[in-house]
Write the structure tokens for this entry.
Amino acid sequence: MGAEASVDFCARSVGHLRDALPRVLGVSLAPAADAANMRRTSGVVILGYLGAGALLAGVVMGGFSALLSFWAGWRESDVFIQVGRRAFYAAAVMTVLAAVLLEVALLSHDFSLAYVVEHTDLSTPTALVAAGFYGGQEGSLLYWTLILGVLGAASLFASSRLGARISAYATGILAAILSFFLFVLAVVASPFDLLSVTPPDGLGLNPVLRDGGMLIHPPVVLAGFASFAIPFSFACAALLAGRADAVWIAHTRRFALLAWSLQTAGLLLGMWWAYHVLGWGGYWGWDPVENVALMPWLATTAYLHSSQVQERRGRLRSWNFGLVILAFLLVVFGTFIVRSGVVPSVHTFAISAIGPWFFAFLFVCVVFSGTLLAFRAASLGEASGPAPAVSREGAFVLQNLLLIGVVAVVLWGTVLPLVSGMFGTERVVGAPYYERAAAPLFATILALMAVGPLLPWRHAGRPVLRALRWPATAALVVMTGLFVAGVRSAPALVAVPLAVAAGATVASEYTRAALKRPMSILRRRRRYGAYLAHLGLVVVVVGIAASHFGQQEKDVTLQPGAQVTVAGYTLTYTGAQKRQLTDHTEFVAGMRFGDQTLEPSRATYAGLGGQALTHVAITTTPLADVYVVLAGTNDDGSASFRVFVNPLVSWVWAGGAVIILGVVLGNVGERSPIPELARRRIPITLPA
Amino acid sequence: MSMALRWGLPAVVVAACVGYLIYSASGGASEYYVTVSQLRSQSAAGDVRVAGEVQDDVQKSGGGLHVTFTEKDKTASIPVEYTGTLPDIFRPGITVVAEGKLGSDGVFHARTLLAKCPSRFSTQPYTQ
């Protein structure tokens, strides 16, 4: 009670912009004015002051870099372009400094900082205290800014070879984005806000978040989000500079891949965490927070494919610009949705003052990139000559359109409450909407995964039909097999065979290469790495289809010694125990399953108003997960459970690992990311 | 065939398909998201989602798998009945979103129950 009560009294000393600005200015420019206060608190408070000062210095450096770079790029002044780039590095260093200071404050339990009090306490394990850095609104923004600064600096490092203009404009755009984030951090949502009274202990982390998943899921997702800014900045810079060639694509390819891989991993880790912690037996609920993480991933997936068309064939120039811009806008839109609370979601961040700021930022980004695209797209031009519909590039175009179709479906479902709320009663859609609308699109994409890699560039003739015999046979065999095995769900009978066909395509490509030219698998790593990622996705799809259509569940109340059988898996309830731990009590039920004992439990945290926390017990067999949730215990010794049997869920996680492996093996250590075509053919330089 | 037609035609076809999918799927699957007072004032047929605060009269039975409680907003309240596992943070005082039907008995029969966590990453709301 003690800590909580004292925090109740000492509200944050800073609430509004008008209070914050003079404070930040005063503090960071003249820390000596607070000398008495500092002496009293034996110098600990200085962390907060230094942090706020670093943020403010970052804003100044970033703003300077943005203005100077745009001007220098326009004038093509090499010296000032360099100065602008170095100012960006300085802003990035300030961001790193602020991040280090916040981490030090957390680890040293500096409870003079509101952020430290709100997200940690003395009993939190050190790893989770460190994770508190990105565990709250302000800290997660700082983490995002940190990634933006570091990756931005890395992307600018070798950018001068792209040409003076493009490099300068990219610096300017990155610096503008970085300054916006630093400004929000310094003024609107500062992690360095001080409390007027320093409490003896913090409030601690919500028990739901006291989990290993907390250490890894948020940083990966946030890093993924932040890294979308780099392809965006270079795309806009190329548009501004009037460079329609693929050089920006080649330069940012690594960053686009990094963003995509991080987002892939982030989505899967989020699913894994939800599945293991939340206890509803599933891993994807089409919640707005999940949707806004999915949409930029879909757009970037489209871009990674369509950019090859531009690199290899010089087509789809304006489309590629559009996709990269769309991905970044979706990230900003998602951040706005999640952090402003405008859409009803099960899990939103605290509704905070940053909503309007992000709305304004989104507006500026939309107007800026939209105008740029509209004015430049007409003059981008396309490679001449007809493009036959049945060709590799045709498959990429169709796949792109379908992926953007899925984005439209998800976007509509996400914003429906907003839109319908404006015209009457708020309406929402649940999982059935997304499944009905997106499933046919996903199925067609799977079919394209089976056909596309077999199509040659430019023109497809009769040999393609012969190449298709393996995937087609595999699909038919699997479909028949599933039907004979008793599967009657139509979506499952379509999804799994199509996924298998896509897998068969990859297998036949590998076999063909291994038989004819085994070394080409190593020489053309990009291609065969991508096929490996395809294979991973196939495994994921089979896992999702099996666990979605084959899930069985049962609610049951059992006396000790009683048994329950779900989908052929038998569990025996052996009794429950009560354990008293320092900050919570825990009921642990024993469920014998074969020769192992599952221990689903339910903890109650008295200090948090009696909040309960369910610990799911999961055991993975080769074919399915047995997933036991303890719903409650009764006075007569009986206990209630919800038991799920989820087939092949582990395939989802394994397939995800294969996808990442494919991207890594296909790209890490590649010496020249700029392919020959992009370097040799730089045909179009528009008047800037 | 002209360039615009070549690329534009598939785009239009896909866009039309996506539009149709969105239209047909949202027609059948969308639900009204209402407050307790709105639910009281209109007789909505079919499934709705209703948000409100859980009152102190939570009754659990069946080992915690069956629960009844009153959901209330500023002006109206409604009895809710639900069978299934409860969200972890479910308790009097929090806001829940119940998805289900208002029965002729005046009781809201919830199919799913979502706890709205005012803040996912902060313990602030638990300060009492």
